[in-house]
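Hey,
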Amino acid sequence: MFVDTHSHVYLDAFQEDLDEVILRSKQGNVERVLLPNIDLESLPKLLELCQKDAQLFRPMIGLHPCDVFENFEETLAALEPYIISHKAIAIGETGIDLYWKKDNLELQQASFIRQIEWAKKYQLPLVIHARDSFQEIFEVLDKYNDEHLRGVFHCFTGGEEEIARVKSYGNFYFGIGGSATYPKNNYHSVLPSIPFEKLVLETDAPFLAPVPFRGKRNEPAYIPHIAEFVAKSLGCTIDEIAQQTTRNAFELFKLD
């Protein structure tokens, strides 16, 4: 059994063949697909998908850093009630992105901090998007991390220094996705430094498809290819990766 801990299957990229995508996920033993929200407009489709197959799909509620604008406080206020009403399993995805958005760091930081407060208030894990922004993310976590905060660095792309920093926060996991399989990232050498009990798998579908599907639309059924890469990097079997990462995901997100 596998868990795809981060997948945007509710986006329009899956509109034409959603049922087939769901079938392939189950045929590939991907039995839980966790859906991170990105903005207010995308939420209805996400929730509809969770109603369509409540066993497979689980909702997260949050505001993506690339969707943080001047009115972000109004957006967050509209999103917050859904955390309880739809039994969200996490807050996110949130964080800071300085690759696509370089001119509104203060707004992104404020939105991130508000969602950290949600994670503590509702006792839910935080799903962190960190693109070209590890230092800025760490500066916020240095101030707000405590024993009540847990979460995952989604699509983790850091090296030894970033791994050590994340480990120092005590209760954060590492989301490994398709980009780890790209040769230029040299992730074979990085993965052994990540604690096995803090490792989870994700696709970030429809983005970042793993080798051998790089450049194509990603989907949850490709999780076994990521698991195979991780297994080779760690010198263990795919079954061991499936068992451990599923255990980790169930522990982090309190899945049933």
